[in-house]
Amino acid sequence: MLSLNGTSFLDNSLYGVSRGVVQQHRRVAPPMVVVASVSSNGRAGDRNVSVLVETSLKEIRDASPAPPADKDSKSKVTGGIGDVYGEDTATEDQSITPWTVSVASGYPLLRDPHYNKGLAFTEKEKDAHYLRGLLPPVVVSQELQVKKMMANIRQYQVPLQRYMAMMDLQERNERLFYKLLIDHVEELLPVVYTPTVGEACQKYGSIFRQPQGLFISLKEKGKILEVLKNWPQQKIQVIVVTDGERILGLGDLGCQARHHLLGMGIPVGKLSLYTALGGIRPSACLPVTIDVGTNNEKLLNDEFYIGLRQRRATGKEYAELIDEFMSAVKQTYGEKVLIQFEDFANHNAFDLLAKYGPTHLVFNDDIQGTASVVLAGLIAALKLVGGTLAEHTFLFLGAGEAGTGIAELIALEMSKQTGAPVDETRKKIWMVDSKGLITRSRMEGLQHFKRPWAHEHGPVTNLVDAVKAIKPTVLIGSSGAGRTFTKEVVEAMATFNEKPVVLALSNPTSQSECTAEEAYMWSEGRAIFASGSPFDPVEYDGKVYASGQANNAYIFPGLGLGLIISGAIRVHDDMLLAASEALAAQVTEENLESGLIYPPFSNIRKISAKIAADVAAKAYELGLATRLPQPENLVAYAESCMYSPAYRCYR
Ligand SMILES: O=C([O-])CC(=O)C(=O)O
Ligand SMILES: [Mg+2]
């Protein structure tokens, strides 16, 4: 262990670098425990920590005891609090030279969310890390902390208060936050994710918090490479990026809401799930908000708005900023970093995916993740309603990213199953947009992503008439418009289907096309229903109906893990199909009997490992994997790579 007294350590000429922050550090009373190294390019990496140290990896190794045998720290340089990677999963590339990491002890240690354990520091740790007197005498287990925090959170009746309590915890004690989220995933998912995150993005305006990700605005044009260097972590594996133009079904939230945290609400929320549900270590996740302005008048006129106060840049200006970002990311983190596009507006989302799909490891959650989760639900639903996919007829309300993305994946799967060309299988899928049924006669005015769904039919101007005309067996809401599956619509579905499949996908709950209660009531309890945001079980006619959550949160964490563990360099549609099939395979007879077409979220880490294994297997099969040789048991390998939120012992 390289454990040095701060003052003498800084005076030691072996460790040559000293910058302004070092001076600042000298004034901090408690000595420091430091684990340090710099990247091979000699660049001091971590501008946010209080000490920057330049030395070679070898010097640290020499100064370190033999690595302990436990799995967590295997073959890594360890020292004092935290190792040079800062986290512990096998998803790390052991060959890279690490970034600078320095870790404070004493008072700053209690303020560092990555290492803070609160009341769980042991007596030995209190002595070794200058904590004595800074904490009350009790030493509690992480389990007891979880119990206490859950009791605190349950005291709040208002979801936004629970959300804030969770965000506070994340900023205070990251491992406890993830332990809570993992151990109580079903209860806490609606708190840190949809619907509450959407409400938070819209409503919360008064509390200042720490920024939690990178803001890249037009002001940073020409400097994005430098901006990325300001982020404290170097080994990034997943980036979730949004430009805020279509947040959930809520529209343009610009740089979003009115304070720093919420500017990042969606990317931060998604990445929390990458960690909790998919086991990607937190320090490998980078949330990014691209700010090119907003067309939301309310925000533009809001004196507290934190984003660029201008209308959205478009065309060349927009494309150049994104292009600079994409290049800078690849240059900084290499070609195996996964970039997830989230909540871009339709007019950019498809183009960005088409443009960067061939050159980067990119994934659009709203087009591809939603598609994969819905296909999984449909595969499971077939066991209840009978028939093959190709024997069903699909009608979508909403022909944007989610709708056309899902439709395309269904058409691909049908084609795979029947051998018919995709052009043919698409004919079983119909779409209604704001102008009515999409038909060939409307072809000229249609955006390119809607055209494959324009079939021969006379004009139909609204959903009810479309339902009556097409007689779909499956009705899918991807409109972002709440309460659009009216009584008449659901009743019509129930007249010609014994078990109508009704999926109300739009988020958050306020935008859901109908509620679970409405779906069951209006179909006399016969609907197979799932929704993007969760609904509590409902009672109808003396029977309790639970409904599943058709949300991409089932897919992206496992898909991301699979891409990372295989070192994949591109996302392929077959990986999405593999993810769908893996998820559908996790739906048990028991789930189906109670009307659920998704497995419970309580098993999500196991499910993610299975999805990851099948996605990775597909990456190897397609020759897109770079991590060789292929592990023999991919499920076991995926599981062994997952981040654990258990506290580590600081020696
Ligand atoms: O965030 C969610 O809950 C699902 C999603 O991607 C969206 O609605 O845009
Ligand atoms: Mg989304």
TrEMBL record:
Co-factor note (free text): Divalent metal cations. Prefers magnesium or manganese.
Chain coiled-coil ranges: none
GO molecular function, one term: NAD binding
Catalytically driven reaction(s): oxaloacetate + H(+) = pyruvate + CO2; (S)-malate + NADP(+) = pyruvate + CO2 + NADPH
Active-site residues, record numbering mapped to chain: Y193 (proton donor), K270 (proton acceptor)
Transmembrane stretches, start-end: none
Protein name: Malic enzyme
Annotated source species: Coffea canephora (Robusta coffee)
Lineage: Eukaryota, Viridiplantae, Streptophyta, Embryophyta, Tracheophyta
